[in-house]
Amino acid sequence: MGTHRDDTNAGRTVPWRYIYALLGIACVIGVVVYVVRQPPQALADILQTSITISICGNGQVDPGEACDDGIGNNVGSYGSTTAQRVCLPDCSGYGPYCGDGVLQVRFNEQCDEGTANGPTSLCSATCVSQPAVPASSPPQVLGNIPSRSDVSPGVISAAAQTQVVLRGKAYPNSDVHILLDGVAASIVRADSNADFLYSTTDVTPGTATFSFWANDSGGATSVTTSVVFDIVQSAVTSVNNIFLPPTLSVSARQIAPGGLLTVSGQSVPSATVIINLDKDTSDALAAAVDHSGTWALQLDTSSITQGFHSAKASFELASSSRSGFGKSVNFFVGNQLPKGGPSPDMNGDGKVNLVDFSIFLLSWGTHDVRADFNEDGTVNLADFSIMLFNWTG
Amino acid sequence: MPPYFLRIALGVLFLTLLPGVASAASLSLDPATGTYGPGDTFIETIRIDNDGDCINAANVALTYPKDTLRAVDFSRGDSILSLWAVEPRIDTAQGTVVFAGGIPGGYCGRIAGDAALSNVLGEVIFTVIGAAAKTAAIHFSPASAVYLNDGAGTLAKLTTHDDTVAIAPTAQLSNNQWLSDVANDHTPPQPFVIQVESTSGVFGGRYYIVFSTTDKESGLDHYEIFENGAWRHVASPYLLKNQSLLGVGDIQVRAIDKAGNIRMGTYSPALTPKRQLSFTDFIPFVIVTLVSLLIGISWYLEHRKWKARREVQG
């Protein structure tokens, strides 16, 4: 064998350069086939959001907490000194204490000058009035402090409840549907800033999946967003920054090449919505959300190839605060819209829940076209995955 | 030609032709190693690492040496899966454990600050039954699969981490952790509701019930329904035997966990929605009508013949 790439076998020349060329062509074809076979909505690059958990009761001051005295100790009872102050049950701050600057007669305080309390102050460290004395003198107690039986000391039971607090953002004044382990648990209303809060003690310690979805004012349904975490016994587990991604609608499912397509939806007021077309994340479009939570932009389809395309959106409040992607919406640029597949809403009641799952199970492993959502000929886990993506509970 | 070139080229070709493969997830067993002897019972936790992607469905198939180990139970108490397309199935004759389930809305990984790893798919309880072999390997079979939560049923690229436990000649564990876990479980499964449904094209439009719940401790074992004066095993969806509903009392289903704790679910038929009629509901009517028509036509034809004969004779 010389420097050339041909070889011989039993006196016959083996055309390696042609074999290489064929392999190269095959690879190129493979790449093209791979790209083409990707369904337009197969968008794997899913954004991670900045969801955080703080566990009120673990003895550590987690993000969003002001204090944490540990399981059973966050009772918010009165502290007779700053050092003896007691954390509130939700770890948002301390219960009343001598040194908080608030005169609390019901706890027998005679005075409270906040951090100024001390031997050189007119108020002692135990909130007892004292004359101005040199710093070296010990604090004086002026007589007996009458006890009051008509007020409650405000002590909360030490047997702290297991509680979950969930905070996030949806759409202004929208109803946020909350599911626990896939089953509808509650509906809470987001305020005009799209903030929602859900708190419950009706939970069992252990791994739990909370899911969220909402309809915007135009009736578009968000993607179902889930958080999976461990509920700690006798503690308040708070999950923050649960962001429902923007809703996204298109003015037409099918549009002639060169037409203007309106892409719109709802999100958090004053946020910036980032819209990605197909799998392209390098050249994303952006739209500002107005005070009512609405956003919109015009998409010129003259620069888009004919065929199926998809659009998905996320929102950004700050560079470090971003939602995940919402539902991917397909549209067809061309003159004839191909037929779509069956819907995971198998009983047609507008929801995808246990009833649809039950019907789906009856078709498991069969060729039932009603449950073959990806139309690959078999009802299998891929179809189950599509159902779970569209889950509303 | 260097042989590795062909291998690499074919590998690239193979990978590029795989349909819908993207991103990565991994399945692993915890603990990854261990030493056990005959009679020891140990728990292998199946964990998933989503590697930054959101996933929503998983199919897990484990194989183990059936002469050395026996899978004696499966716990889904800590599982992040809340819906089970394939209930956990242990085949001791083949040495396999399979299950498939999903998470509505998907699982995007551990949240910062979470008190637990929260990435458990299930726990398999093994007992060592033989010490002839020095090791026992527990493998994820190629049937294992994970899907992305992207609405398209995209298969995630999956890596698996098998486990090989060392087998000692004598027992190594002083206690049975699984039995302790079950004994300490005094919490019943989560509350649940029974839905009575009638869907055109499903069970011929007849009434069926659906239900689902979870158990956070030892895990759900099974459901039972009270029918004809006795409790019997049931799975959702279930076609009700008594379709009249009214006058038969409440529909009762109970969920029972591994420790025997029971959670009752009750449905009052007074709340039953109106039944949806399907074509099959009309089949008896159609048959009776057709038979009646046939009898009528036959009688009419016979009558005409008889009349004609009578006129000829007359």
Which short descriptors sum up this protein?
heterodimer, A: 393 residues, mainly beta, Immunoglobulin-like, six-stranded mixed β-sheet, four-stranded mixed β-sheet, 19 strands, elongated, B: 314 residues, alpha+beta, 3 domains, seven-stranded mixed β-sheet, five-stranded mixed β-sheet
Strand and helix map with partners:
The complex is a heterodimer of chains A (393) and B (314).
Chain A: E1 7-9, E2 12-14, H1 16-37, E3 52-56, E4 163-169, E5 175-180, E6 183-189, E7 195-200, E8 206-214, E9 225-231, E10 236-243, E11 249-250, E12 254-255, E13 260-266, E14 272-277, E15 280-288, E16 294-300, E17 307-318, E18 321-322, E19 329-333, H2 354-362, H3 381-389
Parallel strand pairs in A: 4-10, 12-19
Antiparallel strand pairs in A: 1-2, 3-10, 4-7, 5-6, 5-8, 8-9, 11-13, 13-16, 14-15, 14-17, 17-18, 17-19
Chain B: H1 3-17, E1 21-30, E2 35-36, E3 41-49, E4 55-63, E5 69-75, E6 83-91, E7 96-107, E8 120-128, E9 135-140, E10 145-148, E11 155-161, E12 163-167, H2 177-183, E13 195-197, E14 208-210, E15 220-227, E16 230-234, E17 238-239, E18 251-257, E19 262-267, H3 283-313
Parallel strand pairs in B: 1-11, 2-12
Antiparallel strand pairs in B: 1-3, 3-8, 4-7, 4-9, 4-10, 5-8, 6-7, 9-12, 13-14, 14-17, 15-16, 15-18, 18-19
